[in-house]
Amino acid sequence: MTLTPLALLKNTFGYAEFRPLQNEIIDRVLQKRDTLVVMPTGGGKSLCYQIPALLFDGLTLVISPLISLMQDQVAQLKQLEIPAAYLNSTLSAQEFQDTAQAVREKKLKMLYMAPEGLFSERTLALLQPLKIDCIAIDEAHCISEWGHDFRPEYRQLVQIRKTFDSAVCIALTATATERVQKDIMSSLEFKTDSAFVASFDRKNLFLRMTEKQDQTAQLISFLKQHPEQSGIIYCFSRQQTNELSSYLKQAGYSVLPYHAGLDNATRKENQERFVRDDVQIMVATIAFGMGIDKPNIRFVAHVDLPKNIESYYQQIGRAGRDGLDADCLLLYGYGDIAKNRYFIDQKENESERRIATIHLQAMVQLAETHVCRRILLLDYFGESYGKDHCGKCDNCLESKELQDVTEAAQKFLSCVKRTEERFGAGHVIDVLRGSENRRLLNLGHQHLSTYGIGKEFSKQDWQYLARQFISKGLLRVDPEYGSLKLTARAQEVLFKEAPVEVVAKPQHRQSEMDMPSPQETEYDPKLFELLRSRRKTLADGQGVPPYVIFPDKTLMDMAARYPQNSNDMMNIFGVGAVRNKRYGPIFLRIITAYCQEHEIDRDRYRTNRAPKKDTTPKKSPRTTQIGESFAGGRSIRELQDLYKIKRSTVIHHLQDYIMQGNSLPCAFLQKELDPQFDQRALQEAFDTLGARFLKPVFEHFNGKIPYEELHLQRLHYVCKRKRAD
């Protein structure tokens, strides 16, 4: 039987269908057409060359700058019985010889190497007699000087292409603006139609950015939302990393530090303990994370402002690689901006300073915007979001106080005009505040009509307002010199008195870092913990990270479906033939024993008698208010507007209200249901599959009914059942 990409996807890797663009990219690579792949972290880039590698007759070279990522990917491929290996500096002389012999004997399908190692005479002598069908270049943004992690040795990779001119080349990266994409294709001599750019939107990441008030208290409040979960906390300096790690350890958290000041052995040990779930939290500088393929990182927190959006995007991309929800918190202060500017000023090359300044300004704008953060984030990478809100960032979910600053805007814009649009924000602010610095006096700006008219605001307040004016499009920054230029919108404010509102600058008070209520658990958490414990034992026995056995998403699917046999296992996410044969019986025994103990009817994906656990939500004044208001005749839309919350939050409050023993009018719920969905079919599905878990119902309708609608439909179903009883 002829193998196909789809058959390999299912039987080898355990996935039912391709993600967006994967199939098209794989077909193109199989046709030996060079391809640039830009996909977000966790988007499935590796499969774009791994599946072709299994279908090609010859060898696939995978070039990666990251030793840890090579080791991790090879370990995962070996679990699937795919012949793969790596050649790098970590191997002993004997290990190198053994791997080289396997290459000569054509026993491997994939060979991972660092770019530096490719150009040695020994490596070229090993590879030149072989048929090289594919060259995969990972972290391809390292090719571009405009990329955030430029590496000169990557510029030489075009020579490897010429050495093995019959091989197709696929370059892959998660972070590349349009300019970087063009630079990569030009360097590798790709045709202009070679790029496949997936959406940069990581829909499962919740984004929150807030000004530092009490950094430690804010961080602890955030960590309380993620008990016993894996996460990374990024710090600016080594000293800060050590101090925060020690503090959290004393506070009872499972935590280790990671930074370039630690010796290699300690760094390696700390990273391995984190990857293998022996420790929950890594406090680190940006030295940590490259090459970490751990899929179950549930949060990433920054306690300092990153220097650019590419770095921020790459770092938060380490969360939620399994596609499950993850939280991203950024705490920033004006001192962070000053620190970044100081290091920019130390750069000797003027062009580098200019590029770094532009990048920093974009990062600050993202942190301080009051519009949907995804709109700005995706716009930076050249992608239009297409909506006015995402529902997965703090700005979309929180009602933020707006402040009328029309008069202040007029003063600032007028001062920009009076200084002939030749200066940056700092000088304009000095004029407004009546500074007597030598440069200002030498320019004669103390004689301007705007001199000293803005003393009511501090310098910091004016800096905040200036960034807001830029964000709102009243000003643009000259990319060459950093001077401020008035826009058409500014003219309307100055001469037509168009109003200007900005988000009120946060006051220095302690605030809770509560994330929005998590979605209802759609799997059995007790069974999940049993499966996770067994996975950890298996992983430790083999000396591999737990996710190499099965990712969390696979265990959650088992804990939602209660598979009964080997055939059922093959329908579980991430379970292919090899893993099923190796691990299926082990996990099936745990599931069978659990279902027998708790009298779970696995045939119907439902529980006749659930494990004893108090699931009744605690009474909340907001839940009671919303429940009573709805019962009194207010619609969900009215409740959204009244409480400034999203629709799904209202539905969850109504659900909690019912679970507290209250009732709601079925007729009112009926009015809220979307008429495009078949009510009778939904009721029959709940009758058959049960109402405890929504995932079986979601899959019964092939994912065509959104979870939010299913929550509401279930609420209506439960109310009807209660009334019938």
In short, what is this structure?
The chain folds into 5 domains: 5-197, P-loop containing nucleotide triphosphate hydrolases (Rossmann fold); 205-397, P-loop containing nucleotide triphosphate hydrolases (Rossmann fold, 3-Layer(aba) Sandwich); 402-503, Winged helix-like DNA-binding domain superfamily/Winged helix DNA-binding domain (Arc Repressor Mutant, subunit A, Orthogonal Bundle), CATH 1.10.10.10; 525-607, DNA polymerase, domain 1 (Orthogonal Bundle); 621-724, no CATH class.
Mean pLDDT: 85
What best-fitting shape do the alpha-carbon axes yield?
A: globular
Number of helix segments?
A: 34
Beta percentage is 5-15%
Say what oligomer this is.
Answer: single chain
Strand order of the largest sheet: 3-4-2-5-6-1-7
Q: Which residues sit in consecutive blocks of at least 5 with pLDDT less than 50?
A: 507-521, 604-619
Structural summary, described in words:
The chain has five domains: 5-197, 3-Layer(aba) Sandwich (Rossmann fold), CATH 3.40.50.300; 205-397, P-loop containing nucleotide triphosphate hydrolases (Rossmann fold); 402-503, Winged helix-like DNA-binding domain superfamily/Winged helix DNA-binding domain (Arc Repressor Mutant, subunit A); 525-607, HRDC domain (DNA polymerase, domain 1, Orthogonal Bundle); 621-724, no CATH class. Helix content is 47%, strand content 11%. It contains 34 helices and 19 strands. The strands form five sheets. The chain has a seven-stranded parallel beta sheet with strand order 3-4-2-5-6-1-7, sandwiched between helices. The chain has a six-stranded parallel beta sheet with strand order 8-13-12-9-11-10, with helices on both faces. The protein has a two-stranded antiparallel sheet with strand order 14-17. It is globular, with a radius of gyration of 28 Å. The relative contact order is 0.07.
